[in-house]
Amino acid sequence: MSFEGLNVAEFFSNIKDKLSKVTKGVGGNSDRESPNAAHSTGLNSPPSPAQLSARTTDVRSEYVVSEDAAPPEDSELASEYLDSKHDQYPIVKRDWEGLKRLIAWLEIEPQVTSWQAKGKELLRPGLSVLGNKLPEKSDNIVVPSKSAPQNTELQINTELQEINAPQNTELQINTELQEISAPQNTELQINTELQEISAPPEDSAPQEDSAPQEKTKKRLSRRPRFWIGLGVLSIGSGALIYGLWVLYTLDKALPDVNDLSAFNRDGTLTIKAADNTILLQSGPATRDKLKLKEIPDLLVKAFISIEDRRFYEHRGVDYQGIVRSIGSNLLARDLVQGGSTITQQLARVVFLNQERSIKRKVREALLAQKIERELTKEQVLERYLNLVYLGSDAYGVADAAWVFFSKPVDKLTLAEMATLAGLPPAPSEYSPLVNPNLAKQRRNTVLQQMQEAKVITEAQAKEAMAEPIRVKQSSPKRFKVVAPYFASYIRKELPRYVSKDALESGGLTVETTVDLKWQKIAEQVVKDAIEVDGRRQGFEQAALVSIETKTGKVKALVGGGNFKESQFNRATQALRQPGSTFKGLVYAAAMGAGFSPYDSYEDAPIIIDGYQPNNYGKKFSGWRSISDALRSSVNVVAVRVLMDVGFEPAMKLAHDMGIKSKLSPIYSLALGSSEVNLLELTNAYGTLASEGNFIEAHGITKVINQRGDVIYKADFKPKRVLDKDSAAITTWMLEGVVTGGTGGPASLADRAVAGKTGTSEKVRDLWFIGYIPQVVTGVWLGNDDNYPTGGTSGTAAYNWRDFMSQAVKGMPVQEFPKLPELEGRKGSIKAKPVEPKEIIRGMIVNEDGAIVPYNPHPEPRHREPVYQEPAYQEPAYQEPAYQEPAYQEPDRYQEPRY
User: Fold this and answer.
1) How far apart are alpha carbons 339 and 835 in whole angstroms?
2) Cβ distance 521 to 734 under 8 Å?
């Protein structure tokens, strides 16, 4: 029969074929011991094809019989209705092996046999009536008899029967949907629930022979059951087609599962060093991801034994395990066993959530099957054991081993392995830190399962069960942060390169530029500077930044002495006056404008529009060349050079070289009055080291989302901002600062160094920015509250040398460019000299704010001492020394009177 182009017989035939293909893969999936068990643990590897073949033929069922076996004599309808005259017709064979396996696998053979018997009893009266109604002999209608078993096949199935009409006419007898396959010429269908007689083709029989069929058809069409059955069939068929369409749609919408190794959960952030060492993790992330070969074999088998005994036998979904778990839960009236395989759990962790819905379960099953198609069993295990949540903020077996036992996985005992393997169903409930007694019971259950799977012996199981629960708790490793100041810098930079949506979704892995060897050296140098030099010179903080000049990669960054005490990053967040270190950029602009390092300026008192630049100690030294003035850090010459170059060209070059902070067009700009941070100032000097090419300093090389897709990759190109000759001249002058000027403490024994010291007003900040051709490094010393220090910029230069001498040890020595030809050289920057409104020469502003002539040898002012009442002091008593009175001769003798 057919409905609007749908051939029902063909439809159910296709359904049967597909069901057979599916159920063939289920064969042998019983809860019996694996064929491998006799020679191994039973969990080592998937069975061979030969073993699978042997297992599928060994079915424990009376229902499953050989296709070639002779039909029984007493229990089948053929005993009454088969005729030996039809031996001439060929057998129409059916391949029901898949259905047989499914019935055996579900262990419902007794029920099927019972349904068969009841169906036969119900059909006997109908068949007897049919036998009486039909003509005894006909050339077109053939009723097979018992004597012709070779030419006819009779199948009666109360659960699923198929209508199959080879050519002409179909006879089907089925309590619910039954099938009788007849020879090539004739089949008559009679169905007490769903009955239909298909009219034969014109050439199949004479008209008079079809009268009984017409009568039967007329009688059946009047019955209500016929139309009810027809409606049920239509609805069922539509539902089946819709279900198949839904499955097809879901399958097409499944995500790519090729690379699960890069997966990270939502809300996580992992920052890695250049060598892939994890610096920081936030959120539910796995800290230590291991290769499968790094995980002990017993630990792997412990998880398989308790979570998915048939892991190596199924293809993502274990149908037998589902039925078994349903039965166990019904018997226990509780959720005592789950049906999800390890692959399904992996699919749920990576792609789904914990939503309880049929759609989620279907997607989970489809994903598990897709994972199994595209990944090996070993890859599935490796990813599962690295991602499974085991409680107490531990993700993966390596993290859990550390959290619960403070040891790596290869040091775990059998009892500890079983404890970890028992955690996945309820990590909090079975945690040995929360419920030791319940954890022990669960551990013993795992050991029992391992013994039954022949992973361990009975003696090993008993010995492990006898052990008490011993835990040694440790904080998860992912809470530990390496290079915290650098990691905080990366977190603040991330929004520049990644969208807001990606940040909110999380699951990001950030690969960075930091060299951990350099980072550790830098952290130690900063620590020593604060503890040793800071005590003597009155500063409490320090910062250091080191950048690779040719690439702009930040190799080390330290923003303070103790991140736990202060998370303020002084390398990137603190804006401080750079002092004389800014002069290097001013002189670079002068060289770019075509100036010569030998051009001379007078170092003398001067007041420009009310501003008076002063040198250190308020002394002036007369005419000096630009290079000499830079070497000695003469302030007056720097201001005069800035006036001749102009504010706009100088500020533009500084910004082009890497300064991002706001610069003010004032005369004190030459002396570093505009605040900058250490990172950008170091980046600007790196432009000089790379011969005038600017590459932005950066710490992020790549960002990967939770699916393993690269959503950002650094691609910084050098940009020419200063011509090579001008950069070479500036470097030559800055070399002189180290070899014969204020930067002497920064000199290295094996290579040339160029750089500049700097001290802000009232010695609040101490700086040194220096470089070699491959690396530029900056050091800052000072106090967070801007309290003046008692040190000098030479201290910063000394700490610069302390870091660089260790960091570049073994690095090939490269030379700076030679000083180019100066005569006739033209610059690449157009100068825009400043035109001041008023210049007063030879005068200074005294302490009272008055403008007075400069006196190179001022006399100290006489000040009237302020009278102070002396404090009263009790004089100490002193015993007078005894003195013999001197004899004195009288002036004249006087006679005494009588």
Assistant:
1) 86
2) no
Letter string b/e over residues 406-445, b meaning 16 or more CB atoms within 10 A of that residue's CB: eeebeebebbbbbbbbbbbeebeebbbeebeebbbebbbb
Which among 431, 488, 580, 690 is annotated as catalytic?
580
Predicted structure pTM score: 0.65
- The active-site residue out of 162, 187, 307, 680 is 307
Better-scored residue on pLDDT, 187 or 239: 239
Q: Is 580 a catalytic residue?
A: yes
Report how far apart, in Å, the C-alpha atoms of 696 and of each of 66, 543, 550, 656, 816 are: 78, 20, 10, 10, 21
- Helix 377-387 to helix 342-351 angle, to the nearest 10 degrees? 60
**Which of 584, 870, 614, 886 is CA-nearest to residue 737?**
584
Q: Is 420 or 824 the better-scoring residue by pLDDT? A: 420
Cα–Cα distance list, 789 to 241, 525, 800 (Å):
83, 19, 18
Question: Both tokens of residue 753?
Answer: 């160094």
Tokens, residue 667: 């005369």
Beta-carbon neighbour count of residue 526 at 10 Å?
27
Q: Is 312 helix (H, G, I), strand (E, B) or coil?
A: coil
Q: Which of 452, 409, 415 is closest to 432 using CA atoms?
A: 415
Among 166, 168, 173, residue whose Cα is nearest residue 194: 173
Of residues 864 and 223, the one with the higher pLDDT is 223
- pLDDT tens digits, one per residue of 628-642: 999 999 999 999 999
Kindly give the residue spans of alpha helices, DSSP state H, lying in 414-563. Answer: 414-421, 436-452, 458-466, 484-497, 500-505, 516-528, 534-537
Fill in the amino acid letter for 7. N
- Per-residue three-class SS string for 622-676: EEEEHHHHHHHCCHHHHHHHHHHHCHHHHHHHHHHCCCCCCCCCCHHHHHCCCCE
- Name every residue whose Cβ is closer than 8 Å to that of residue 294 and which is 6 or more positions away in sequence: 409, 410
Strand partners, 180: 154
One-letter amino acid of 23 = T
pLDDT band at residue 889 under the 50/70/90 scheme: low
Confidence of residue 53 (pLDDT cuts 50, 70, 90): very low
Q: How far apart are CA 318 and CA 448, in angstroms?
A: 21
Helices (H), 694-823: 724-740, 793-807
The helix (H) or strand (E) run that includes residue 546 is: strand 541-548
Closest CA to 61 of 98, 108, 25, 116: 108
Lowest mean pLDDT segment, chosen from 10-24, 99-113, 586-600, 749-763: 10-24
Instruction: Return the biggest CA–CA distance within the chain.
Output: 215
Residue in 21, 102, 118, 22 with CA at minimum distance from that of residue 61: 102
Q: What is the mean pLDDT of residues 696-719?
A: 93
* Most confident region among 55-69, 229-243, 860-874 by mean pLDDT: 229-243
193 has catalytic annotation:
no
Which has the closest alpha carbon to 575: 674, 675, 488, 661?
675
Q: How far apart are CA 103 and CA 110, in angstroms?
A: 10
State the amino acid at position 94 in one-letter form: R
| Residue 745 CB contacts under 8 Å (≥ 6 apart), including other chains | 794, 795, 797, 798, 801
Burial class (CB in 10 A: 0-12, 13-18, 19+), 760: buried
Cα separation, 606 vs 618, in Å, equals 12
